[in-house]
From TrEMBL:
Keyword presence, S-adenosyl-L-methionine: no
Organism lineage: Bacteria, Bacillati, Actinomycetota, Actinomycetes, Micrococcales
Domain Aminoglycoside phosphotransferase: 26-232
SUPFAM superfamilies: Protein kinase-like (PK-like)
Pfam families xref list: APH
Endpoints of the signal sequence: none
Protein name, per record: Aminoglycoside phosphotransferase family protein
An example Gene Ontology molecular-function term: transferase activity
Length: 285
């Protein structure tokens, strides 16, 4: 993983917004394919997260809006401390601004190599149920929109589209969670959040757990989620198929996220093989 460091301009802005004398780069967090995410530190040892988005990227505004509504998650969600959604303090060579946000740093680190995968799955399920139980902000975009009519996703979308919407993370996989001493301590990267049926996030994480482990672990995640939410998730098999179809054209591009977090076996070829095997078990394939 390359150690991308924030620019001096971004560090000066963040320090001013936080009311500290100066900030320095501490480390770059792994797994980021959208915003560049770094840990920055103050002279007293306090650490924060600085996220820099591509110029003109509206995802930063969505993340700001979502983070403002996550108080009921308590310590499981980062707190927004400062934001420059227009990139006014960090223009690039073309004059377009790079949006910035600063949040609290959640304790722990990303981990996809737990000693107890079943407990790992249970905690993921319980946490996702908490997210889906939060009050929905109706301003957030609907993520489960109609695909092109000639897309293989379209027929599955028609089957599932009438299901109620909940707050949806939109990339709920184990690499976007933070762990400390075997306990899940937070969920990060809310820039893509919006509204969708429960199965949207659920199937995405089930697929990730199949890649990492097996169907048994994915089923434990689902059992824990349903128990915590209070009702079974409808049409799980169809949601699995929808998630697999979404992954199919691009699954190899996810390899750096897995290999950086310790799963060297999940390179492009490994992910393609696991997805193909998973899809072969799904109804409709």
């Amino acid at each position: 993983m390359s150690s991308v460091t924030p620019s001096p301009v971004a560090l000066v802005w963040a320090a001013r917004e936080l009311g500290v004398s100066e900030l320095h780069w501490v480390r770059t967090l792994p797994g980021g394919t959208h915003a560049t995410t770094t840990v920055v530190g103050a002279s007293d040892g306090t650490e924060f997260v600085l996220r820099q988005f591509p110029p003109g990227d509206d995802a930063v505004r969505r993340e700001i809006r979502v983070l403002a509504g996550l108080d009921d998650l308590g310590v499981l969600a980062p707190k927004l401390l400062a934001a420059d959604p227009d990139g006014t303090v960090h223009p690039n060579d073309t004059g377009n601004g790079c949006p910035l946000i600063v949040t609290t740093l959640l304790p722990g680190q990303a981990s996809i190599t737990p000693t107890d995968p079943q407990d790992f799955a249970r905690q993921l399920g319980q946490t996702l149920a908490c997210i889906h139980s939060l009050v929905v902000d109706p301003v957030l975009p609907d993520l489960f929109t109609e695909p092109a009519i000639d897309s293989p996703l379209h027929s599955v979308w028609r089957e599932l589209n009438d299901e109620p919407r909940v707050l949806t993370h939109n990339d709920f996989w184990s690499g976007n969670t933070v762990w400390q001493r075997g306990n899940l301590t937070g969920i990060v990267d809310w820039s893509g959040a919006g509204l969708a049926p429960r199965g949207y996030d659920l199937a995405w994480c089930r697929q990730d757990l199949v890649f990492l482990y097996n169907v048994t672990v994915a089923e434990e995640f689902t059992r824990s989620y349903n128990e915590a939410f209070g009702s079974p998730t409808p049409d799980v098999a169809r949601w699995d198929y929808f998630a697999a179809l979404k992954a199919y054209p691009r699954v190899e591009t996810w390899a750096p996220n897995y290999t950086e977090l310790g799963r060297a076996d999940l390179d492009g070829a490994g992910l393609r093989r696991r997805l193909t095997e998973w899809m072969a078990t799904l109804p409709g394939h």
